[in-house]
Amino acid sequence: MHKKIALLLTLTALALALAACGGNNDNNAEPSGSAGASSPAAETAASQEIVINATTWEFDKAEYAIPKDTPVKLTLNNTKGAHGIEIEGQDIEIRGNKSEVVTLPAGTYEIRCSIMCGTGHKQMVSKLVVS
Ligand SMILES: [Cu+2]
Prior knowledge:
Blueprint lengths: L1 H43 L3 E8 L2 E2 L3 E4 L5 E7 L5 E4 L5 E3 L3 E4 L4 E7 L11 E6 L1
Parallel strand pairs: 1-4, 3-9
Antiparallel strand pairs: 1-2, 4-7, 5-6, 5-8, 8-9
The structure holds copper (II) ion (CU).
């Protein structure tokens, strides 16, 4: 009789251990879900979006303006060719069709193509006016 109870307890303990494992798996799935939810939150923090259209071999505007000390979403859109942008004096680079939320102090910055894209690469320069 005691042996049966001991066996039952062992089985119960095993079942609990398995259930705990299942619970852990569920918990592992959750952080990736919430991490995915955090990037749209970062995007909504940007007050506005500036789209920089890049083609061969120029950006669509000679000058882009954004407010100072304010998160702004910079989106690079390659309409022709493969280009990137880097902002002078800042550790900011966007390559391909991507976005980044940036916050900059007042100033005039040079935006350059950051990908060697061909003969006109060096003339791909525009201004970013932050004020
Ligand atoms: Cu280039």
